[in-house]
Amino acid sequence: AVAGSTVELGCSARGDPAPQVQWHKEHGDLPWGRHEVDREHTLHLYTVTAADAGAYVCTAQSQLGTAAATTFLHV
Question: What residue stretch is flagged as signal peptide (predicted)?
Fold first, then answer.
């Protein structure tokens, strides 16, 4: 990603019952005041900086179990 741009990281999690979806950064916190997760579980990172680079993990959990996927952001 280019510094200063907006990045969207998708997370496709479906099930019945619908799973609870959470995003976190593997080593650190999500950028305070510069992120949101929409209804489709997409993580939006605004005005990214070099400090935002790293691994982001989407975790989906329901009574049937837990699944996780990791994506890497390079700035």
Answer: none
Give the predicted TM-score (pTM) of the model: 0.89
Domain boundaries, the chain: 7-73
Q: What does the pLDDT look like over 43-64, one tens digit per residue?
A: 999 999 999 999 999 999 998 8
Say which residues have a Cβ less than 8 Å from residue 19's Cβ, sequence separation at least 6: 13, 60, 61, 62, 67
Tokens (6 digits) for 35: 């992120």
Q: Beta-carbon neighbour count of residue 35 at 10 Å?
A: 19
CATH architecture classification, 7-73: Sandwich (2.60)
